[in-house]
Each structure stands twice: as C-alpha cells, then as structure tokens.
Protein: Murein L,D-transpeptidase catalytic domain family protein
Organism: Mesorhizobium qingshengii
Amino acid sequence: MRLRSVPLGVVTSLILVVIALTASVRSFAALQPSGVPAWLQAHVGEGEGQIAQVVLERARALYLKKVGEGAVKNPCYFAMDATRPGDLGNGELGRRYYIICEANQSFRAVSAGHGGGRNLKGVVDFANGRRCAKNFGNAMDSELTAGGAYITGEEKTSFKGYYRVGAKQDAVFQRTFVQFDGEGEAANARQRVIGGHAAQVLRGMCLRKSPDRSYADHDGYVPFGKLVDYAGGRSNGCTSWSPADAERIVPMVKDNPTTLYIYPESRDIAAIAQAAATGRSRSAAELYWNASCLKEIGSPKFWPRKTLEPIIAQYKKDHPAPPPQPVPICKEP
C-alpha cells in the first residue's frame, strides 16, 4: 500500500495549528487558580506586605470565576486578610488589604480596618481589639467583619459637614462609600450596608451660622466638626482604607466592578478553633492564621446571624436608645 505524500504547505499549517493550540493551553493553565504566575508567587508569604497562599488562591479563583461569568471586566481584584494585625505600634499600620492587577504585574499591600464588634454589657461581649480581630460574624448591627466573596457595587458620595483647615478657613468633607454585594454567609452585605470607604469621620458636631454656604439649611446653618482619621483603628464592619489609599482604590471600581475576597470564612475559624481545642498547632493541621494575632486572641470565634441577631434585638428592646438630641450651636472661637 502506497502512502500519499502530503504537501509541505499542509504539514507546515498543521505544525502551526499544534503550536497555537499548545500556547493556548499553556495560557489558559496560567490563568487557573493553581497556576499563579511567578511574579505574583514572589509576593506570597506570611511576612509584612506579603499575602498568604490560601488568601491569594481563593481571591484569584473568585476573580477568574466572575471574569468567566462576565460579571467582572476590571483588570484588578482585591483581597483582605483579616487575621493579620491592623496596628503594628509606633504609628505603623499593618498592611492586610491587597490590590492585585495581573495585566500589568502590579501588587500592592495597604492597611484596612476590621470590624470592631460590640460589647453588650451584662449580656455578651463580641468586641474586637484595635490590633487583632478575635470575633467575626454576619449578624445585623453586630459591627463584625464577615469573610467570604464580594463584588464591588455602586458608589455614593455624601456630604458630611465642614471642618477647619486653617485660620478662619474651612473645607467641605465628602466621603464616598462603595457598596459591596456578598455571597453565601456574606449575602446580606447590602442589608448590613457593608462596603468600603476612607477611614475618616467628623466628630464633635455642631451647627454654625453660615447662610452663604452652599450646604446651608433653610435656617442658614451648616454642620461643623473635627476631621478624625481612624485608619489605625476599627470599623463598623465595613472595609476602611486610609484617605490616601481610598483616593487610589475608589476610582478603580467606579462603574467597573471587581471582586474582593475577605479571609477568614466561618469554616476557617471553626478549623482553627477545633485545632486549638485539641492541642494541635495550626501548622500541624495545615491551617492558616496570622501567628502573632493567634497568640494574642487565643482562639477566634464566628457569630452566625441566627444566633446573634435575636440577642442584639432583645438587647435593643431592653436598652432603648435615648431620644435624639438636637445638634448644638457652635461656640464661635
């Protein structure tokens, strides 16, 4: 039986097709959660400014999933490791919020606040310290951080008042809030009004007579306060960034949603708590938690909404808030 000769041009075309298919397979493999590129893998670790392997893998998997579904087109994605310390002391903040842009091989670690929780005195205490978070949860009015998958949503910029910046010179304070939409245990993020914003607030509010101001009310008064930066503190469950970082992050997601993965989830907390109860070290159990914070808090706890919400509701019923007081008139300097 004679074999027909194949024209050289056909052979060449077949070789090019095989090469192209091989390149496509390799390219696709590099985009898989297990195929973290070398430049990004170089940032993996448990040191300051690094991202833990499990946090990166989950954040990357979430991002690739949402890109594949067409829900996200942003070239960057976010991650947060709430097991790390927020305050390192001596004015240094812990970097535990990550901005990852694989398209231009950019990785940046910045500070972020964690949910402060609450101490319902005489009932239950699920408050967190300034440095490390021990308590996590998804209950309404708990002011706790809930780990899991989120997508950034719409932005809302609100006028908060005026503050003094110099001798007889005031400035307008407006803060932009980026809504988060969560999944699973974080699915009630919108209901809880969970999102991201600059860690700034006006304290000691009073009303100042300034009828010429654009934000003056019908009586000619404007709210006035002292601008406070709490980037080194806790939040009400939202993700709070330093003012400088917020200026970079907020424009990144304007009309261009992306993913945010927050570690730990309840399953991670349960695994660490179980390991501690049985005397196993986290390394022996192949679990991740920031070592310094784990030593400080002992064992973390997740407060599910079905458990905590009835307690909070009963506490509010037993301890009704005092009637709102009118904002005082400012004492002119």
